[in-house]
Amino acid sequence: MLPAVALVGRPNVGKSTLFNRLTATRDALVADYPGFTRDRRYGLGMAAERRFIVIDTGGLVSDVNTLTALVAAQVEIAIEEAEVVVLVVDHRSGLTAEDTYVAERLRRTAKPVVIAVNKAEGVPGELAEAEFHPLGLGAPIGISATHGQGVEALMLAALAPFPPDDEATAAEAELGPRVAVIGRPNVGKSTLINRLLGEDRLITSPEPGTTRDSIHVPCERDGKKFVLVDTAGIRRRARVAEGEIVEKYSVVQSLKAIEHAGAVIAVLDARESVTDQDMHLVGLAAERGRALAIAVNKWDGMSGHERRLVEREVERKLDFAPYASVHYVSALHGSGIAELVKAALVAHKNAGAEFATPRLTRVLEDAMEVNPPPLVRGRQVRLRYAHQGGRYPPLVVVHGTQAQRLPDHYKRYLENAFREALHLRGTPVRVELRTTENPFAGRRNKLTPRQSKKRKRTLRFKHRKE
Fold first, then answer.
1. Inter-residue contact 56 to 7 (CB < 8 Å)
2. Which of these CATH numbers, 1.20.120.420, 3.40.50.300, 3.30.530.20, 3.50.50.60, describes 170-350?
3. Quick check: 45 and 23 in contact, CB under 8 A?
4. Which of 145, 242, 264, 427 could form a disulfide with 18, with the two C-beta atoms 3.0–4.6 Å apart?
5. Nearest to 297 by CA among 216, 207, 195
6. Confidence class of residue 195 from pLDDT cuts 50, 70 and 90?
């Protein structure tokens, strides 16, 4: 599984800037005054050809009050979830008492720690790092989160203890695709899996956060093998003392499960409608291009009016994933579960489908006939042909003149057109636009001397006539 890296440090040292650099996004807001980040933020990072999960945290301070105590609690959760911690310090400010305070807290954890000396652009590494050796957490590494200087070296050091991320092994392939069950605490994920298995294989509890670590449950249904992944996982009943409540729900484990899943079942609670966290989790699965089925659980016992309200809410708030099939189920009673799992497996199959170039080109031509490409800079864009560029999810590469300048809304139109025409229920379709090179480009340079002289005479005559 992907390692998780927590960014920790006092306020205003550049943790959020580093987060944005590692995730190639601006998902973490950046400000010039301390204390801007209070909650944990999660993202999928890429550096030094390694993938990982990165967690942005608020600033730790030694002065404890109600607000700083809440921030500290969030940081502790992030440290617990992470496999490695990056302590971010500020070269310009030098070593401060707050840096020492944070380092002391980190020394009490069992997690490996790497020191990132930020804002060290243009400064020799030894000079930037020397002041922070007394923290006693290993050799510091000078970086500039703003400019990217030293970031790859930092991540190589942070991820060194962890083996590179590998795809599923042959043994896992024999068990079938991984189907990750994701959702907020206490929406019924483990109850759903127990219903599928016909036994209390996983712990269920009315207390939210019973699930702790992701586990994989091999299953077979209607002759099809697959592996259910309960996020953030759970311990077997025999290993849990009576009355014990296992630690809180882990976002990191859900991110890991989504990243390695072939298909995702997102579980929502019908009685709580669609929350922001529901939308965030479904959005993560959609962003990563996973085959997706949505289960609206606890559907039993609701009145017709309440059901209609929930259906409208689901349609409105989850319209960013129109390809996902929605199933209204009761994990407790088993209604709708068979159709849900079948839809998830069909979605995975569709995500791996292969299509011939002539068929994709015909779909492209039909789509352009219904809705021609818009003018770009006053010129008509001509899309010539399409071919498949990848699977899981399906990638369609469209070639044409000025294709890359087409607006995003037309690209989304093509994605929907391909998905509907190819009947790819449950999986997104990615479209990549490529501008085909002009076959006549540079032709003038290949003219013979006689042709070049004739062309010049023609142009002079045309100029005099005008």
1. yes
2. 3.40.50.300
3. yes
4. 145
5. 195
6. confident
